[in-house]
Write a structure and sequence with these properties.
The complex is a heterodimer.
Chain A lengths: L30 H4 L1 H10 L5 E6 L8 E7 L2 E7 L5 E5 L14 E3 L5 E2 L6 E2 L5 E3 L19 E2 L1 E4 L2 E5 L7 H5 L2 H5 L8 E10 L3 H8 L5 H4 L15 E4 L5 E5 L12 H7 L1 H6 L14 H12 L18 E6 L3 E6 L2 E9 L7 E9 L7 E4 L4 E4 L6 E5 L7 H17 L14 H14 L6
Parallel strand pairs in A: 12-21
Antiparallel strand pairs in A: 1-11, 2-3, 2-5, 3-4, 4-9, 6-7, 7-8, 10-11, 12-18, 13-14, 14-15, 15-16, 16-17, 17-18, 19-20
Chain B lengths: L3 E7 L9 E6 L2 E8 L2 E6 L13 E3 L2 E3 L6 E3 L16 E7 L2 E7 L18
Classes of the chains: A alpha+beta, B mainly beta.
């Protein structure tokens, strides 16, 4: 190492390789993706037992603020209580079961949640505070008793997490070690600048399978082969006992399999080079040296650009840190943001789901406007993000994710075929097997929490 | 109309059917192969991932890239579909008793393209 070496081996995310789990060889058959019975098992025994993301903390800043989130057949209501903490409830009136709140978000401004059917009122703590004809309940007034049913709710990374299991483990215990790894990104300081929900004609696991492998990159994302080492030999795949995974993929230039000339690599990284005032020409003859040079350069001038890279390792300045949190979340981390990906099951049809893409931007110090390279779009720190909803193909999730979305429909169609004989996957796709085996641990009721 | 230069590649009478070789003309690497008695020449560079096609497998008129399986017709450089989305350059070949010549058209300089992007771009 020279005096000018800027490698900080102790800062940032550990690259320690996780112990490889022992995986089985059971089939991952098509029925898992299209059977109503299997979907029902997943719902009762898995979805209702895990921590799930409901929203962003910055959606609920004042007492009385609320959001509702559809998760499968349920609707979850999150509100800021009188204790200034976020609480989560089943969004159902405890009179005769009407859905209580029908809007996606709002603020009570000192009022109560009022059921449209018979006027029952619940305050932001979920307490039933007023009913019509209170004297007419021979079994006793329901006020204070038939309160909204509350479920565990906590926050991490600026996300609101809920769990339908009243006996669940703590959120940080559940998320470990992913939460420890990703704390350095301070996602609670990021602002959601893109918010898309697509109704897809594919099972939710088609989405999560996709983000649990990188085997598809050269075919679905051909632009990646010139700018990152997407070959499995250059990547690290980790699976943790908690059920979560990650992939570390070197960026800032192609891997050794790439035999092309420098032009396509330079073209692919052009915007990066321009933003960072980086001259790549000395690396025309040796692209393998580009990555470390880019890391060093970003470290040197990061603060000039308004970034605090003190919590990052050098690798985090160029490489792709991709985490999947069981069962349905992916964090694709960048030094200046995060692509957050999440699929929820359709309430009735196992061959459909709701796919969510959020882009979280970390604005440089002092910047209110920022060009998001990942989304090829200008974003504003002051603008409330619009929630765009539609069907697959109607709204873009950004160029890269659009490429993924485009393959999922045909994947589901194939999985529906009686001719599909189950998976035959290479070693590099083993996170998919790990994912399915974790689902099975829940639905077989043998999982010990 | 682009001008074309003719280049002498030498004698390839001993290149048999199903065999291929690589010739350099300046910075350009040309894959030369013989199929059904006739010589064909295409650019030795896969349009998908910039891999030398000469490291791949020649099967009939198709040359298959070893890295991700993209396939190109040596008669015209056309790709047969994904993962390639464009073909490769194809060159006119003339073989006679004096040897093999190849015509290479002078390409226009590449204009500035928009950035290739994907969600994997980092800042």
């Amino acid at each position: 190492m020279t005096d000018t070496d800027t490698n900080k081996p102790h800062a940032g995310i550990t690259r320690e390789k996780a112990v490889e789990p022992e995986l089985g060889q059971g089939p991952i058959d098509g029925f898992r993706y299209n059977s109503a019975d299997f979907a029902a098992l997943e719902w009762e025994q898995m979805w209702t037992k895990v921590w799930l993301v409901a929203g962003r903390v910055d959606q609920l800043t004042n007492p009385g603020d609320y959001i509702t989130v559809p998760i499968g057949p349920e609707s979850i209501l999150c509100s800021v209580g009188s204790d200034n903490k976020i609480h989560a409830f089943y969004n159902v009136c405890q009179h005769r079961g009407n859905r209580l709140v029908s809007t996606e978000n709002g603020s009570l401004n000192g009022g109560d949640f009022t059921c449209a059917y018979h006027g029952w009122r619940f305050n932001t703590d979920g307490t039933l505070v007023w009913v019509h004809c209170e004297e007419d309940f021979p079994q006793g007034s329901p006020c204070g008793k038939r309160n909204l049913v509350e479920i565990p709710c906590d926050t991490w990374g600026g996300f609101i997490w809920i769990n339908m299991d009243p006996d669940c483990k703590d959120l940080l215990d559940y998320l470990s070690p992913i939460s420890e790894h990703l704390n350095c990104y301070r996602m609670e300081q990021m602002k959601r600048t893109h918010w898309v929900t697509l109704e897809g004609d594919f099972n939710w696991k088609v989405v999560q399978d996709n983000f649990n492998e990188s085997y598809h990159l050269p075919f679905v994302h051909p632009q990646t082969v010139t700018v990152m080492n997407e070959h499995y030999s250059g990547c690290q795949f980790d699976m943790y006992p908690s059920g979560h995974c990650r992939m570390l993929m070197p960026g800032g230039g192609p891997g050794p399999q790439y035999k092309g000339s420098y032009e396509k690599t330079f073209q692919g990284l052009k915007e990066d080079f321009t933003f960072w005032d980086f001259d790549p020409s000395p690396f025309k003859g040796d692209l393998s040296a580009l990555r470390v040079a880019l890391q060093k350069h970003k470290r040197e001038i990061g603060s000039e650009k308004g970034y605090d890279f003190s919590l990052y390792s050098d690798e985090q300045l160029t490489d792709h840190y991709h985490y999947t949190v069981f069962p349905n979340v992916s964090f694709s981390m960048k030094p200046d943001g995060c692509i957050f990906l999440m699929a929820y099951p359709h309430p009735e049809n196992p061959k459909k789901c709701f796919f969510n893409m959020w882009y979280l931007t970390k604005f440089p110090e002092g910047a209110t406007e920022y060009y998001s390279n990942s989304m090829r779009d200008w974003v504003s720190i002051n603008q409330q993000v619009e929630h765009e909803t539609g069907k697959v193909g109607e709204i873009s999730c950004g160029h890269g994710i659009d490429q993924d979305v485009a393959i999922w429909s045909s994947q589901q169609q194939g999985l529906n075929s009686r001719g599909y004989r189950g998976e035959y996957i290479p070693h590099q796709e083993r996170r998919i097997r790990f994912f399915h085996e974790n689902i099975d641990r829940y639905i077989s009721s043998n999982f010990d929490q | 109309m682009n001008q074309a230069d003719e280049h002498n590649l030498g004698d390839f009478s001993d290149l048999d059917n199903g065999e291929l070789t690589v010739c350099e003309v300046g910075a350009l690497e040309i894959l030369l192969c013989r199929v059904e008695g006739k010589l064909y020449a295409i650019e030795d560079n896969c349009s998908h991932a910039d891999t030398p096609l000469s490291e791949g497998r020649l099967s009939g008129f198709q040359i298959n890239c070893p890295l991700h399986g993209a396939s190109f017709d040596v008669r015209n450089g056309a790709h047969s579909g994904p993962p390639a989305y464009t073909g490769v350059r194809c060159f006119e070949i003339n073989e006679n008793d004096l040897g093999v010549t190849v015509k290479i058209e002078n390409e226009k300089s590449q204009s500035e393209e928009g950035p290739q992007t994907g969600f994997f771009q980092t800042r």
